[in-house]
């Protein structure tokens, strides 16, 4: 059922009406609730679309991207390209959900005809609701019954000569057929970040990835090395990285890359001076910490050939009591990019695999890539580690050169960040571009 409100959404409150008029309004509302009894309980449905990854068929501009429709802001909106039908916007709920309600708050450019659809895989869609004579305002679809991970609004006829524009797309229901998983939190990650450029340069990417990362507002941030180019001097950190990703330095857990070793003042000198105890919380360039049921291990792949770090890792894994393990460093064992596979990581992989680790994050190659679970020898196995290469934080992109076995998805040339959604028993993630659109969504994994 639908409640159409003729006043524009989020309008400025008006002066109080006379008592008689107010009484009439209350009588009308009561009558609506009697006609539509399911509306009385609609407010109890949990909101499950807030700040979830979104994609759209088009956007009028980068300032009017699809993520604006799920950010709960009264002043931001998504707008499609003008004058074209059909157009759509979809939200990734992050897991299969039982959807019971969808509300749409239209801007002046509304849809006269559209469908609300749901999908398990983002490919095959099932109709939840439909409109053929829309008049804008707010459409509130209640009493819905659909199960899937993706919800889409598919516009087939514009109500104006412009495009389609939504202030808000809200989806209500329950994830996984119940309440959201316990211990849920979000982490943003990226590697290969700050080139020697600023926001004044139109081609400078790290200000854009920083703005995206900050908008997501995760529990904390990870960096996978090569945080500052070209040789990571302290002066460059202050001139470039600090102006963008430095805005949330206090919430960042970094690791160094090979460019941090090029500093003329000494290997990792600028890195250590800039991050201080944040990068050396345990007095070394490698460390670990816990969040919820997750154990995070930050490693320095520049010194994997030194026994001190390997011995420390063995001890750290032996002490771990958490059910899920994520490790991150700079040089990937497997990569389809220009640097290719780096065997320096294999001894570390063997230790992590033996401890039942779940996830490894790397940079070095400037592209995005995800791999199916595999063992240290590259054999696909359900017991294996999932590896993600996330080197698209701002440095110049590298092309894909030789696709490796078990590589499931590769993206080069589009800057962005990893948005990791973790809970007490598993995880998933999306690769979000600087335009706010989701470029890739991962499966849901259960921790070993």
From TrEMBL:
<dbReference type="InterPro" id="IPR029052">
    <property type="entry name" value="Metallo-depent_PP-like"/>
</dbReference>
<dbReference type="Pfam" id="PF00754">
    <property type="entry name" value="F5_F8_type_C"/>
</dbReference>
<dbReference type="InterPro" id="IPR008979">
    <property type="entry name" value="Galactose-bd-like_sf"/>
</dbReference>
<dbReference type="InterPro" id="IPR000421">
    <property type="entry name" value="FA58C"/>
</dbReference>
<keyword id="KW-0732">Signal</keyword>
<dbReference type="Pfam" id="PF00149">
    <property type="entry name" value="Metallophos"/>
</dbReference>
<feature type="domain" description="F5/8 type C">
    <location>
        <begin position="35"/>
        <end position="174"/>
    </location>
</feature>
<dbReference type="GO" id="GO:0003993">
    <property type="term" value="F:acid phosphatase activity"/>
</dbReference>
<dbReference type="InterPro" id="IPR039331">
    <property type="entry name" value="PAPs-like"/>
</dbReference>
<protein>
    <submittedName>
        <fullName>Alkaline phosphatase</fullName>
        <ecNumber>3.1.3.1</ecNumber>
    </submittedName>
</protein>
<dbReference type="InterPro" id="IPR004843">
    <property type="entry name" value="Calcineurin-like_PHP"/>
</dbReference>
<feature type="region of interest" description="Disordered">
    <location>
        <begin position="49"/>
        <end position="81"/>
    </location>
</feature>
<keyword id="KW-0378">Hydrolase</keyword>
<dbReference type="GO" id="GO:0004035">
    <property type="term" value="F:alkaline phosphatase activity"/>
</dbReference>
């Amino acid at each position: 059922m639908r409640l159409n409100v003729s006043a524009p959404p989020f309008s400025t409150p008006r002066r109080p009406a006379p008592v008689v008029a107010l009484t009439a309004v209350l009588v009308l509302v009561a009558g609506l609730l009697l006609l539509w009894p399911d509306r009385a309980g609609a407010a109890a449905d949990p909101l499950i679309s807030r700040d979830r990854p979104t994609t759209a068929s088009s956007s009028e501009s980068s300032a009017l991207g699809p993520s604006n429709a799920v950010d709960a802001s009264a002043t931001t909106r998504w707008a499609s390209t003008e004058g074209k039908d059909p157009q759509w916007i979809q939200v990734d709920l992050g897991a299969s959900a039982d959807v019971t309600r969808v509300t749409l708050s239209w801007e002046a450019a509304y849809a006269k005809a559209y469908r609300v659809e749901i999908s398990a895989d983002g490919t095959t869609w099932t109709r939840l609701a439909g409109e053929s004579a829309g008049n804008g305002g707010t459409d509130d679809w209640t009493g819905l019954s659909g199960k899937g991970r993706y919800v889409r609004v598919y516009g087939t006829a514009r109500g104006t000569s412009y495009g389609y524009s939504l202030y808000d797309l809200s989806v209500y229901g329950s994830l996984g057929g119940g309440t959201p998983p316990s211990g849920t939190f979000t982490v943003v990650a990226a590697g290969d970040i700050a080139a020697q450029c600023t926001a004044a340069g139109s081609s400078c990417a790290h200000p854009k990835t920083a703005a995206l990362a900050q908008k997501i507002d995760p529990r904390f941030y990870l960096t996978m090395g090569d945080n500052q180019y070209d040789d990571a001097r302290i002066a460059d950190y202050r001139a470039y990285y600090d102006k963008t990703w430095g805005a949330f330095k206090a919430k960042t857990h970094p690791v160094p890359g090979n460019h941090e070793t090029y500093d003329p003042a000494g290997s990792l000198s600028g890195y250590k001076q800039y991050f201080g105890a944040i990068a050396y919380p345990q007095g070394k360039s490698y460390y670990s910490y816990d969040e919820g049921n997750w154990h995070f291990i930050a490693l320095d792949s520049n010194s994997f050939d030194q026994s001190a770090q390997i011995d420390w890792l063995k001890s750290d894994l032996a002490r771990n009591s958490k059910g899920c393990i994520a490790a991150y460093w700079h040089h990937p064992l497997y990569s389809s990019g220009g640097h290719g596979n780096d065997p320096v990581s294999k001894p570390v992989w063997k230790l992590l695999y033996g401890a039942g680790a779940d996830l490894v994050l790397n940079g070095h190659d400037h592209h995005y890539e995800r791999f199916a679970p595999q063992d240290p020898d590259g054999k696909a196995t359900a017991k294996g580690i999932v590896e993600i290469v996330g080197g698209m934080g701002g440095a110049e992109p590298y092309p894909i050169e030789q696709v490796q076995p078990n590589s499931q998805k590769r993206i080069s040339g589009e800057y962005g960040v990893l948005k990791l959604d973790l809970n007490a028993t598993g995880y998933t993630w999306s690769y979000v571009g600087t335009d706010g659109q989701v470029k890739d969504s991962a499966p849901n994994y259960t921790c070993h």
